[in-house]
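Archive transcription. Copying these from loose printouts into the bound notebook so they stop getting lost. Printout 1 of 2:
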Amino acid sequence: MAVQINPSILSADFARLAEEAKAVEGADWLHVDVMDNHFVPNLTLGVPVVESLSRATDIPLDLHLMIEDPDRWAPQYVEAGAGSVTFHAEAAAAPVRLAREIRAKGARAAMALKPGTPIEQYEDILPELDMVLIMTVEPGFGGQSFLDIMLPKVRRTRELIAKHGLDLWLQVDGGVSATTIERVAEAGADVFVAGSAVYGAVDPAAAVRTLRDQAGAAIAAAPWACDH
């Protein structure tokens, strides 16, 4: 089972995004949070910055759209250079249609769930997705503490993926650090968004490697990974 570490530029210096991207060379994806000050109470960046960032780095961009009306806006982020686009289940009017449109434009389609949104009600559309993102904090701000009460939800999501025999990545975002990543990997995640744990480190690239090693060891010992 391949572990992926996706540093979040929400914790980077926005005035030096090109250099901050270079600082995490070796990362699997660069996680980009798009917030509109409507779906979440914060405002970050939009299509022009994503276009510029995609030209400034060879690391593929993992877009997390914390916005209203992703059905309208998500395809534009694929065109801007995103390799993966995540929309929120709570915001999408037609998630199956949107996932298919994202895929048709050439990116991976992913769906995110807030902490209070059950995974079970979306079981039937999992085959339409390439990744599910379980938020382990309330979306909208970086630097929050990991919510341990989300671990059972991560486990249930992994069980649903196995139940349907899907090749589906399971991402977690929120409070992922050296002290939490092993627990969430053991619960079933294999893609990890890390913000301050990477960009707050003296050597961000080394922090990525350390997190990947920790998660890999935890997954290797996890019951859910034994058959993979």
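Printout 2 of 2:
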Amino acid sequence: MAFVLIHGASFGANCWDELIPHLGAEALAVDLPGRGTRAEVDLGTVTLADCADVVREDVEAKDLRDVVLVGHSFAGVTIPRVLDLIPDRIRHVVLVSAVVPPDRSRVLDQIDPGVRGLVEQSIADGVYHQTREGAAAMLCNDMDEATAASTLDRLADDSAALLSEAVNLSGYKREIPRTYVHLTRDQCYVEELQQRSIELLRPNVIDLDTGHMAMISAPEKLAAVLNAIHG
């Protein structure tokens, strides 16, 4: 049994570095295309199908089964595609403040208007580039100065096309248990939007009193939730 961890937008697999030592089972953190170990991939070419395919590739390469699949933020639109690719390998899905807009809609249309303006200003030539200042306001409200600096040092460019691609949520129709970790101090994927995602998914819900990057700001708390689900 293992955890498979999927990062959100503007980060790579190293966003899970603080969390992994607290997990009670093997953990595989996946780099989506254009980030980390896959930095050679042109971000301008990346699709949601590509993101799901590299998760499948990494899981199959290690022959992982009975997986607790954990997705943060933007990974909420990658996970259903993973569920359609390797459903027999997934035991439980955990969505950490995950973006789950209505099926066939665009993520960009569903995010908070205040945040949307910051996102749109950060797009140029098909690449989404967050500034440290903008990211600090959205992501680091529950962090001390050193933790915030460490988080911002890990910012990565992302594919702007992923924000405007129509999502396919068919994988969420599968009978695979799921839990939504609701982050009560999140200033990025704000309360109203988390509640919309919860309404769409009808998952078990667990509250954590953290900001958006709980795996960095409160790794022991998030690990306790994940370890309890893993069993």
